[in-house]
Amino acid sequence: MKRLHCISLSHKNYDIQVRSRFSMSPEQYSLALHELCELGTVNEACILNTCNRFEIVCIVSDPGIVYSWLSLRTKTSLEELLNYFVDLSGIDALKHIMRVVAGLEAKIYGEKNINGQVKQAFLEAKKNNLIGHTLETIYAYSFQVSKAIQNHIALPMSSITQCFFHELEAQYTDHYNKNYLFIGTGKLVKEVLTNLIPYQPNQIVVASHNPERVCDELKQIATVIHIDDITPHLFNVDVIFSATNTNQPILKDRDYCEFNPNRKVYIADASLPRSFDSSIRQYPNVNYFDVDDLASVSEEENRSKYGDLDQYLDGLINREVISLQQILDKSYMSKIIEPQREVLKNYLDNVISQTLNDVDFKANPEKHVKKLTKELSGTMMHLCTILLRHCCKDNDMKTISDLRALIERHNNNYLLTKKVNDR
């Protein structure tokens, strides 16, 4: 448990601009996993890369190794990284992982999409041979807890999609027959499109980095264009929803003159880094929401309802963390104890076998039994002394008490058996 670390940067400590610095494209993500695997000193690891957070969960003796790797990869000084990232370890890391998987650490409280994102991160890490028994156990248990927790959450707004439509209705008194532009073709865009039908869209345009790969389902309901061909469509657009992965803004100040100045435009930018540069906020006819702005819509709606709920769910998480810790401790101890028990068993078998097979045993069994007793009692005293020294060093009075109780129990059993035999 001491070697479990969660090195985390999230919306709780830094804004979207800082988080964007550490966001990875799919290609960078795969390479990062490969590099972690090559480090050797990192036993297990999983990287979670979302719009809300960048986290590395790992089993490592020295987290400084991961910081050094991240410093080289992101061209960021160690001092800066230590300011940006929080290093949670042991039981604190366990609790954090469980809360993240359940959506309780999300910007949109109770968000369900994070569960799928963590599962995807877990599978990618597994594909790169970075998941061992410990992280396998932690995530499997956390996914079960998340499922139970989601049954307790009934919040009015727990996804980016819900926030988008809530703000759409707030922006327009008449929100029907609008012209929509979608940037990206991922899961989030498809989710919004699926819920768009009741709003009777007049026109839907979908911009993609790879238009030829867009599925037929999207092509049937939208005009599909290349992402470089967006500007001609800006003049007639009413609503833009962006959820794509890019290293720099897709639209910049020079493109914004293409908007119709007499037309109100609502932009929901769920991309990280953002698809629009910051100058978009200067245009009076444009209402721009980045992913943090959208999440704030959820916070306002949910604040009055999730205060008591979070306290209840945090108690539930604490109980589950203790259970998981016991499972991990038992598993870890088994890996350490079982081989040592096998060594001890072999030693006992060898000593007893050697005694019984001695050519002189039948002629003088009492002598050999005394010799065997001396050998075994000496070994037992030596083992107990080593254990007691460590207990004293760690001030572990419970183990000393347990050891004493065990010896007394065996001694009482021996005395009882002796009485019965004497009769």
Automatic annotation (TrEMBL):
Q: Where is the Glutamyl-tRNA reductase N-terminal domain?
A: 7-151
Q: State any further remark.
A: During catalysis, the active site Cys acts as a nucleophile attacking the alpha-carbonyl group of tRNA-bound glutamate with the formation of a thioester intermediate between enzyme and glutamate, and the concomitant release of tRNA(Glu). The thioester intermediate is finally reduced by direct hydride transfer from NADPH, to form the product GSA.
- Could you say which residues bind NADP(+) here? 184-189
Which biological process terms from the Gene Ontology are attached to this UniProt entry? protoporphyrinogen IX biosynthetic process from glutamate
EC assignment: the record states: 1.2.1.70
Outline the extent of the Quinate/shikimate 5-dehydrogenase/glutamyl-tRNA reductase domain. Answer: 173-297
Instruction: State the pathway, as annotated in the record.
Output: Porphyrin-containing compound metabolism; protoporphyrin-IX biosynthesis; 5-aminolevulinate from L-glutamyl-tRNA(Glu): step 1/2
| Record-given protein name | Glutamyl-tRNA reductase
Q: Which UniProt keywords apply?
A: NADP, Oxidoreductase, Porphyrin biosynthesis
The family note in this entry says: Belongs to the glutamyl-tRNA reductase family.
Annotated positions binding substrate: 50-53, 117
The gene name reads hemA
Chain's role: Catalyzes the NADPH-dependent reduction of glutamyl-tRNA(Glu) to glutamate 1-semialdehyde (GSA).
The record lists the catalysed reaction(s) as: (S)-4-amino-5-oxopentanoate + tRNA(Glu) + NADP(+) = L-glutamyl-tRNA(Glu) + NADPH + H(+)
The first-level EC class reads: oxidoreductase
- What does the record's free text say on domains? Possesses an unusual extended V-shaped dimeric structure with each monomer consisting of three distinct domains arranged along a curved 'spinal' alpha-helix. The N-terminal catalytic domain specifically recognizes the glutamate moiety of the substrate. The second domain is the NADPH-binding domain, and the third C-terminal domain is responsible for dimerization.
Subunit relationships? Homodimer.
- List, in alphabetical order, the Gene Ontology terms for molecular function in this entry: glutamyl-tRNA reductase activity; NADP binding
Enumerate the active-site residues: 51
Q: Where is this site: Important for activity?
A: 96
